[in-house]
Design a protein that fits this description.
Order of helices and strands: HHHHEEHH
Strand order of the largest sheet: 1-2
Distance between the termini: 50 Å
Helix content: 55-70%
Number of domains: 1
Number of strands: 2
Number of helices: 6
């Protein structure tokens, strides 16, 4: 169960990182959600789980964890980008304009970001995330898994139909309340 909660927590934290990143850099694509309803970016959750599955002797040494994180997280990013492209028929990111990119879905600059982020997460944040994950009651897992499954299926259907990640911005089309 812990890996499931780690996946969800780090996917949500990844969403927050993405939102902060676009606010700081001024990227034109302001909305960084990867699901229709849940505010998550699963590539972060998958990368974090991959790192947590590393042997403890690797996790405890920053000089081993950094290159392992670069490889694992870049691999997760590349495969996830390819998955989105082939299955959901969309691209959430494209690094083809950056030097040393690997098929648009990964590049050296972000690979190095993953390494730094992994060190920050593992040594600073993970103890708090572990505390949170072990304190989530068992009864919360089935509704959380159901919400994730339903949201993923709806997201896949919508993206395959529209082939556009902007279709996930359903809330941008809600009527605005007028203020007097």
């Amino acid at each position: 169960m812990l890996l499931f909660w780690y996946f969800l927590i780090y996917s949500f934290l990844g969403f927050l990182i993405e939102v902060c990143y676009v606010r700081i850099t001024g990227e034109p694509k302001r909305d960084r959600k990867c699901r229709l309803f849940l505010p998550i970016c699963p590539v972060y959750g998958l990368g974090a789980v991959g790192l947590l599955l590393l042997p403890e002797w690797v996790q405890q040494k920053p000089y081993l964890l950094f290159p392992a994180a670069v490889l694992i997280c870049t691999g997760v990013e590349w495969f996830t980008g390819l998955f989105y492209e082939k299955v959901f028929r969309v691209s959430f990111w494209d690094y083809s304009h950056l030097p040393l990119h690997l098929g648009r879905h990964a590049c050296l600059r972000f690979a190095l970001y993953w390494g730094v982020l992994a060190l920050l997460i593992y040594y600073l944040l993970h103890p708090s995330v572990t505390w949170l994950a072990v304190h989530i009651p068992l009864w919360a897992a089935p509704p959380a898994a159901a919400a994730l499954l339903v949201d993923t299926v709806l997201t896949a259907l919508l993206l395959r139909r529209t082939r556009n990640t902007n279709s996930l911005r359903w809330y941008a089309h809600l009527p605005r309340r007028r203020t007097a």
